[in-house]
Design brief:
This protein has ten helices and twelve strands. It has a five-stranded parallel β-sheet with strand order 3-2-4-1-5, with helices on both faces. Strand 2, helix 2 and strand 3 form a beta-alpha-beta unit. The radius of gyration is 19 Å and the shape is elongated.
């Protein structure tokens, strides 16, 4: 019996690998995490493809029931379905750790991740620095971390990927517009002249899906652009770009 951590990819039910689909057919229990990202399909779409029921696992369920999930995998084949790649969100490392500690067989099936899909922008992946996230303002009223991470990356001449907060259970998804407003508010407090109206930024929505949108331009310009449905993410490029990177960003302008 085995616990399978299965990446679903970024778009919809069709992104799953053939290997993963064959494994799901052997599983007794399917869990779908629904707190790190958002697929462009429904749980019912997945169930129709798999021909099996799926139990939704929110953050509290996963964090409080890791022992239950791992214990289940001692007597059953259990699949934990994760949007993107199993480890693009660090929260799932705890599941791996707990399974290893309990000597529960575990198998990882990887898939596409936001961490590689951003290569579509033309910005070179090896020139990205530390990734950070922007939480909703009500969660962290005196937020500074994304600003400080951006500052560190800019000093090293590296690109910065900012992942935007989401709460699928309550239908709350941060937009590029909201993220830029938050960064400007932090700038007003810290006043280090890191965030300016004319700085170059790149906004992305639904990467990996046929409706994906990528737009580059000044911060002030992108604030007024509607990226449509979630999920969104934000990239702030390094100050110095390779000529090919600059040419690609011009194509997305």
């Amino acid at each position: 019996m085995t616990l399978y951590l299965i990446g679903l990819g970024l778009a919809d039910q069709n992104d799953i690998s053939l290997k993963a689909l064959n494994i799901i057919k052997t599983c007794d229990v399917l869990y779908l995490e629904n707190y790190t990202s958002l697929l462009q399909c429904t749980k019912e779409d997945l169930e129709q493809l798999y021909q099996k029921p799926i139990q939704l696992a929110n953050r509290n369920l996963t964090e409080n029931f890791e022992e239950k999930i791992v214990a289940e995998a001692k007597t059953k084949n259990v699949a934990f379905l994760i949007i993107g790649d199993p480890f693009s969100a660090t929260t799932h490392i705890e599941l791996l750790k707990h399974a290893k500690e309990q000597q529960t067989p575990i198998e990882i099936i990887h898939n596409a991740s936001i961490l590689t899909a951003i290569g579509t922008t033309g910005l070179q992946l090896y020139k990205f620095g530390r990734t950070t996230s922007i939480p909703f303002k009500e969660k962290v009223p005196h937020l500074e971390t994304p600003y400080l991470v951006l500052k560190e990356n800019q000093e090293k001449d590296l690109h910065t990927l900012l992942l935007l907060d989401l709460d699928p259970e309550n239908g709350q998804f941060m937009t590029v517009h909201e993220a830029l407003i938050i960064l400007q508010e932090i700038e007003k407090r810290l006043q280090e002249h890191l965030i300016t109206d004319n700085m170059q930024v790149v906004g992305c929505a639904r990467l990996g899906h046929k409706t994906q949108i990528i737009k580059s331009g000044s911060l002030e310009h992108l604030k007024s652009f509607s990226f449509g449905p979630p999920p969104h993410c934000l990239i702030i490029p390094a100050k110095r770009l390779h000529f090919l990177e600059q040419e690609m960003l011009e194509l997305w302008r």
